[in-house]
Design a protein that fits this description.
- This protein has two helices and 43 strands.
- By secondary structure, it is an all-beta fold.
- The protein has two domains: 506 residues, YVTN repeat-like/Quinoprotein amine dehydrogenase (Methylamine Dehydrogenase, Chain H, 7 Propeller), CATH 2.130.10.10; 91 residues, Macroglobulin (MG2) domain (Immunoglobulin-like), CATH 2.60.40.
- Strand 11 and strand 12 form a beta hairpin.
- The N terminus is likely disordered.
């Protein structure tokens, strides 16, 4: 099924008021030490993995979740403004795409990706991890159990999070094992070098450090210029996977350099962070998922920001999830129980967000978007951008709430846009900062989609200065997702996008799509529109260039010389200088090169062909299609 590009958009702009910072009566900090388990290359041959049955976690009791009827909600629109998406904002171009080497036997998808400056790629999903080289050739495909087999920690491994540290040129992997207070552990892995297939340092932290009969679930991670931060949620032991007794959020803080060096005794902070104030529902409340805010173009520090929402499952008497109006901004500073400090600011939204309704697939099936937690966030130039799931009350569709907190050290001005389509349901967004070179606030936002007419796939938009590009489809689904004994399947837990730090016009995204009734993983390499290009102002690099035939009716050939190998992008512009598409992207060898392009499907007129290399090569040539 093909998605038509001219899909209508609806989104809402809201300016939110900030209330003063609140006290932290329930915040406590502890210092602990964990021993290094070992340093080893995890890709050496290991014992076979035990036959663990696929396990569905994170509140799969889908039949108890009911939708919210938009007409039953009173929405304050006094401070809102209807807008449309702007086709003037350049779209993402897809350079390459390939399927992750994972089976489809687990749900929901935990899709993570990290890319080094060398081009090495680590991809994780649920209980597996894969490594690719810069040519997208598969180097390793293993289960997390095999990756960590030398630790001799029994039990299935799940909820992997992977991140690349651009400052230290290293990878960090965090995962979980065990589902109760006696077996649960947080496994933290630091690569010793920039080679992900080389040696790693392994550490393990008990999921029940305070001996309170809880276990740790759903980790999220981020780094600043000093530390690794791992946020976790704590639950009481489960009688089954349909009842969840939530006990609040915890933050683990580790000096990342100690992990890279493989210190035998790794000290870390363990912070219990709860708001410590009363609200109407319920009388005693916790932060739910506290999401660390990653750096944008660069890492920041020494403090670290976190975001949280009120997402505890407290349905009303009719079983509906009520709309909410609460956002928390946390600033964490210090390194241990002596100097640790957390400042919490409560931001109230005059227009409420709410749990999205389940989203219909083809064949009368549904996917569940059952979190209101922040899914991803970054900090750059004094601004925090974040994304989360929410309902659009105007069309009752699942959408993506994109928030921007300006003046983070001051007034915490908050603006919220709702990315929504009348014909699609959206979920599980991820966001990354992009630098267009003109000082504007810009980001790439990727997400999963589905509808009664379109199989589940993934897509993205570009955000720049309060305007959004048209939709770019990254991967179209080829079937429904139908893995559970229920008309409603779990859609996902998270997706991930990362800009390649030494090539800021390149990003990689990992998300899910439907294939053979399963939920599969697709990795996309994206070309980001860093700036609006006026071809009249481009100066051609001194080189021998031939364009022939010119004029042309069909094929045009571009012959040029280049003095060093580099990745070149072949772009086509219309007569007004607007980018039509990136036709090709390839690593070009030194010497004479010939590139051919078929233009027979274009209307008659003048066009511009640009060849732009990542090491400074740049030519622009005009061609007439007759």
């Amino acid at each position: 099924m093909k998605i038509i590009q001219g899909i209508s958009f609806v989104f809402l702009t809201i300016f939110l008021a900030c209330l003063p910072a609140l006290g932290q009566e329930k915040t406590k900090s502890y210092s602990f030490t964990t021993k290094k388990l070992l340093t080893i290359s995890p890709n050496k041959p290991s014992e076979d993995e035990p036959d663990f049955a696929p396990i569905l976690i994170h509140n799969p009791n889908l039949n108890s979740i009911k939708g919210i009827a938009s007409e039953s909600i009173e929405v304050d629109t006094d401070s809102s403004e209807d807008r449309t998406f702007s086709g003037d904002t350049p779209k993402v171009q897809v350079i390459d795409g390939f399927e992750g080497p994972f089976d489809g036997n687990s749900v929901p998808n935990d899709d993570g990706i990290a890319v080094s400056n060398n081009g090495d790629i680590m991809v994780v999903r649920n209980s597996r991890i894969a490594i690719y080289n810069s040519q997208h050739e598969l180097i390793s495909n293993r289960s997390l159990f095999q990756f960590t087999s030398s630790l001799q920690i029994i039990g299935p491994k799940y909820d992997p999070r992977i991140i690349y540290d651009q400052d230290e040129d290293r990878f960090i992997l965090v995962l979980l094992t065990g589902y109760n207070h006696t077996t649960n552990e947080v496994i933290v892995c630091f690569s010793k070098t920039n080679d992900p297939s080389g040696e790693w340092n392994f550490y393990s932290i008990k999921g029940n450090l305070l001996e309170d009969n809880t276990w740790s679930d759903y980790p999220t991670i981020a780094i600043n210029n000093e530390n690794l931060y791992i946020s976790i949620t704590n639950f009481a032991d489960l009688e089954d996977f349909s009842t969840w007794d939530f006990y609040g959020a915890r933050i683990i803080q580790i000096n990342k350099q100690d992990g890279y060096l493989g210190e035998e005794d790794l000290e870390f902070g363990y912070h219990v962070v709860n708001p410590g104030f009363d609200v109407s529902i319920p009388s005693e409340i916790h932060y739910y998922n506290v999401i660390p805010v990653k750096g944008g173009k660069t890492q920041y520090g020494p403090a670290m920001y976190f975001l949280s929402t009120l997402d505890c499952p407290f349905p009303d008497i009719d079983g509906n999830y009520p709309p909410k109006d609460t956002l928390f901004l946390l600033k964490v500073s210090g390194n241990n129980e002596d100097d640790f400090l957390i400042e919490s600011t409560f931001i109230q939204t005059p227009v409420k967000y709410a749990m999205p309704v389940r989203t219909e697939q083809p064949e009368g099936l549904f996917l569940q978007t059952n979190y209101n937690t922040i899914k991803d966030a970054y900090y750059e130039n004094g601004i925090i951008n974040f994304v989360m799931n929410s309902i659009d009350f105007s069309n009752n569709q699942a959408g993506i709430l994109h928030g921007k907190i300006s003046d983070v050290e001051g007034n915490n001005d908050l603006q919220v846009n709702l990315i929504s389509y009348d014909t699609l349901g959206l979920g599980y967004a991820t966001i990354a900062y992009i630098d267009p070179g003109n000082g504007s606030d810009a980001a790439v936002i990727c997400f999963n989609y589905t509808s009664p007419d379109y199989f589940p796939g993934n897509a993205c938009v570009i955000y720049e200065n309060n305007s959004y590009s048209d939709l770019t489809i990254l991967k179209e689904g080829t079937s429904v997702i139908n893995m559970l004994d229920s008309p409603t399947d779990r859609w996902g837990d998270y997706t991930t996008v990362q800009v390649k730090y030494n090539e800021p016009n390149i990003a990689y995204f990992s998300g899910s799509y439907g294939q053979l009734n399963q939920q599969r993983t697709w990795i996309s390499k994206l070309l980001l529109p860093l700036e609006s290009l006026d071809v009249k102002e481009i100066k051609t690099t001194k080189t021998t260039v031939k364009v022939y035939p010119n004029p042309t009716k069909e094929v045009v050939h571009v012959q040029f010389e280049i003095d060093q190998p580099q990745i070149c992008y072949f772009n086509l512009y219309d007569g007004a200088g607007k980018l039509m598409q990136t036709v090709y992207a390839k690593k070009v060898k030194p010497g004479t090169n010939l590139f051919s392009m078929n233009l027979d499907n274009l209307p008659k007129g003048h066009y511009t062909i640009e060849v732009k290399g990542d090491k400074g090569f740049h030519i622009v040539q005009k061609v007439l299609v007759d």
